[in-house]
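Hey, quick one: can you model this chain's 3D structure?
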Amino acid sequence: MKLSTHLYRVGNDIVAAYLVVTPEGVTIIDAGLSGHWRDLRAELTVAGKTLGDVKGSILTHGDSDHLGFAERLRRHLGIPVYVHHADAARAMGGPKPPNAMQQMRFLPLVEFLTYTLRKGGLRTSWLTRTIDVRDGEVLDLPGSPRIIGLPGHSEGSIAVHVPLADAVFVGDGLTTRNVLTGVTGPQPAPFTDDPEQAIASLQNLLPTEATWVLPGHGAPWKDGITAAVRATAAASTARP
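Sure thing. Here's the predicted structure for all 240 residues.
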């Protein structure tokens, strides 16, 4: 899905990855599920690019539904994968902290599980090598993406700000569609390690003043980061 001149989405509102497309090449933000490989190649074609134009892949955190095709790109094409050092072990298949009981609704849960299975969610290729990133770093990749520390969902969660595209990619720092309940609109993401810290970290996004807010799950948000953060915070206090 083409979102703007520089933005393309791979996947859908259940699980998504993104492409930043520039004349210098392509930066991938998150890597969805392994079965999104074919979708990635199709979206590159729509953008007038090929796998040879991809210069790097940045992961917002190390959960399996964001790793997808990253190791395949790295191993077979030499495309580097960037991840915060605090999530590198998770991205390599290491353990993650247990989460509290999650609210669920039957039909959205089945839809999430069905889509995940269909797109190869049980065939995750864990990373074997990563490049560490840190808060405030600007990477030498197309779009000059800047890393923003966003701990909470996981210790090493990050957001990625691309001024060229007027976009901030938030991973699971917030969601616009809860995959377990089907509720839409900006809100806290499920399976968050430290919910209070996750909400507090959203303040780090406000200086970007980005128009596009692009989560790993849910529809792209085009009403600005301030409105998204405010709505997420309100949703967090409304929870029982």
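One thing worth noting: The chain is about 25% helix and 20% strand.
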